[in-house]
């Protein structure tokens, strides 16, 4: 019993290794996880003291637990049985489909990644490319109930929208975005999930998938998670605010018990002096399909060119980017249907679109060539029109000959793209009145981010 046993060194190493892993998994790792979880809870508690809308416990759940909760949801199980019967497969197979959908959708929010890394990175990128401004901040935002489920409803102008709104809302809450399939590319998908975003397949007709997605959105809404959605369903291809699609808003609203928690929608309008993807979006619009031809190498080349210009001091920012936050809409006070709510929110967003120099000058040019006095008379603001004209000239979209400004031949579509973002505010109305209603005096009244 007490005799020695000979064994190869490699076997001894394996034995000690397995013993160490077993000890760590049963005794050490749980203690370490508990220690760091306690520290994380204290950090979140301090954050919630300064946030207007606190981070909800649902958002902080372990991703595995959230996936399991969604996977075994009563309505999801019912949808699994229906999918199995419809497709003629065992329920176990359909259940695996549901689990795969749940893992695809559910985020893995990290407080450190969001507030410690992402906010700083987004603020740096915003400042690198734009002069960021708040167009209007409705005073009603300060009166939103602290435990309400807040949903930021936005027009979609650029992929920079995420960074702009995230930074400007950072002192109020942590946003959970509904993002499209473009963000599922590794390693970008890992970062986006860590920031609390959830993926959606916008064109999926799979009933089981849509049920899993609907149940996740409902759980998040019921728990009071602050969400950010783009009802247009994609980037604007022509610069205009597009009609809403009902899917995500229906998931948020239908079946929610307002007696337990109110749902408050905040219309958010964004506009830019220059949209990074403008030529790609226009090409897709002219082709009549949402297939963007910008490859990874195109994006890499753009970043490399910007870095080169920055290195040699030739880089110029893209002008202004502005965000306006409109009057909140409480579901408890809304008398109409989901469709009427969606249309009403998009109408409010359209009314709040900031009138920036480049869109204003583009709109004035779209009415025909003219000298500065003529264009300023059309637009009602000479200083802003001149600033916009100079920016268009720098991009070789407009030129001045003998004192007359005109669109450079062949660039009409690009100028029209920017003009369309504010045309609904300026067409058929007194320009100065529209400017005062939408963007009173962004130089003086807007807060620089």
Largest sheet: 8 strands, mixed
Poorly predicted regions are: 32-36, 439-449
What distance lies between the first and last C-alpha atoms, to the nearest angstrom? Answer: 76 Å
CATH architecture of the largest domain: 3-Layer(aba) Sandwich
Number of domain modules: 3
- Structural class assignment: alpha/beta
Q: What's the tally of helices?
A: 19
User: What's the CATH topology label of the largest domain?
Assistant: Glycerol-3-phosphate (1)-acyltransferase
- The pLDDT mean sits at 82
Please give the radius of gyration in angstroms. 26 Å
Number of strands: 10
CATH class of the largest domain: Alpha Beta
Report the sheet-strand fraction. 5-15%
Measured as a percent range, the helix fraction is 40-55%
Concise structural overview:
The chain has 449 residues and is of the alpha/beta class. The protein has helices at 9-50, 57-60, 63-71, 74-87, 91-105, 111-129, 161-168, 188-194, 207-222, 247-253, 278-287, 296-311, 338-352, 357-366, 372-379, 382-394, 412-426, 431-438, 442-445; strands at residues 131-137, 149-154, 176-179, 198-199, 227-229, 263-272, 320-325, 329-330, 398-401, 404-407.
């Amino acid at each position: 019993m007490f005799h020695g046993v000979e064994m190869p060194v490699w076997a001894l190493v394996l034995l000690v290794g397995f013993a160490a892993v077993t000890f760590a998994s049963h005794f050490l790792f749980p203690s370490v996880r508990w220690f760091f979880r306690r520290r994380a809870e204290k950090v979140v508690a301090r954050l919630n003291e300064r946030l207007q809308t606190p981070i909800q416990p649902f958002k902080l759940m372990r991703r595995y637990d959230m996936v399991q909760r969604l996977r075994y949801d009563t309505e999801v199980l019912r949808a699994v049985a229906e999918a199995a019967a419809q497709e003629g497969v065992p329920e176990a197979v359909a259940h695996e489909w549901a689990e795969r959908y749940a893992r695809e959708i559910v985020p893995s929010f990290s407080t450190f990644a969001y507030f410690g890394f992402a906010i700083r990175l987004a603020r740096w990128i915003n400042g690198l490319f734009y002069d960021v401004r708040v167009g209007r901040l409705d005073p009603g935002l300060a009166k939103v109930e602290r435990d309400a489920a807040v949903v930021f409803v936005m027009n979609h102008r650029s992929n920079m929208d995420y960074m702009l709104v995230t930074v400007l809302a950072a002192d109020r809450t942590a946003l959970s975005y509904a993002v499209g399939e473009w963000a599922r590319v590794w390693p970008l998908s890992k970062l986006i999930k860590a920031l609390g975003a959830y993926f959606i397949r916008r064109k999926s007709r799979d009933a089981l998938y849509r049920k899993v997605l609907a149940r996740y959105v409902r759980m998040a809404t019921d728990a009071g998670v602050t969400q950010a959605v783009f009802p247009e369903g994609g980037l604007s291809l022509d610069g205009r605010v597009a009609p809403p699609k009902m899917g995500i808003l229906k998931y948020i609203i239908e079946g929610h018990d307002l007696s337990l928690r109110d749902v408050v929608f905040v219309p958010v309008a964004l506009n830019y002096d220059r949209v990074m993807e403008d030529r790609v979006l226009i090409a897709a619009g002219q082709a009549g399909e949402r297939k963007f031809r910008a490859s990874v190498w195109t994006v890499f080349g753009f970043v490399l060119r910007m870095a080169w210009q920055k290195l040699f001091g030739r880089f110029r920012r893209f002008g202004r980017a502005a965000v306006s936050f409109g009057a909140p809409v409480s579901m408890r006070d809304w008398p109409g249907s989901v469709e009427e709510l969606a249309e009403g929110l998009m109408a409010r967003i359209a009314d709040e679109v900031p009138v920036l120099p480049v869109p204003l000058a583009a709109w004035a040019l779209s009415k025909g060539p003219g000298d500065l006095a003529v264009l300023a008379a059309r637009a009602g603001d000479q200083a802003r029109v001149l600033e916009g004209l100079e920016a268009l000239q720098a991009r070789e979209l407009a030129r001045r000959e003998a004192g007359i400004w005109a669109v450079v031949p062949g660039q009409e579509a690009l100028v029209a793209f920017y003009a369309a973002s504010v045309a609904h505010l300026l067409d058929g109305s007194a320009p100065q009145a529209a400017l005062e209603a939408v963007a009173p005096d962004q130089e003086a009244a807007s807060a620089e981010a």
